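Protein Entry — a single chain follows
Fields — amino acid sequence, structure tokens
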Amino acid sequence: MSTAAEFSRLYAPDGLPPGGATVTLEANAEERRALAKRFDLVRLDLLAGEVSIERAGEDLLHVSGRLRARLAQRCVVTLDPVEATVEAEFDRLFSRAAPLEAEEEIEIDPEAELPEPLPEGGLDLGEILAEELSLALDPYPRSPDADAKLAELGIAGDDAAEANPFAALASLRKH
């Protein structure tokens, strides 16, 4: 299995200017097709973004930005294409510091923002956008016809559940 990123834009942080840098990037048609396959999308018409990189300490890099995407996902009910526009902002920290090795038990605050290890070859800004896109996708896309299709199959849709939250329990009640 190949580990090469479908949308790769390497940035060497050693050349980062003192005031930081902003990079604008956009996936080409071939990269979008590969990402659509990776994320099981019907299609990915646009993936673009702006990424800002700045030093946040001696060994820390703060990477933030915004992504835009136009795509189509499969409806979880009908499998019809569901058009979507995704706009998302992100903030991430990267560090060159070696991972912490402790001989005794340590406490980790789940609310604390822990830095990710900085990859040896530098930051892959394209892969960062791809990862952020995957987090911003609707996990359960539904077409406008989804409830009608469920009703046709005799399965209650979202509207029925919202109308009476106890309807499902009523069928379990013994007379």
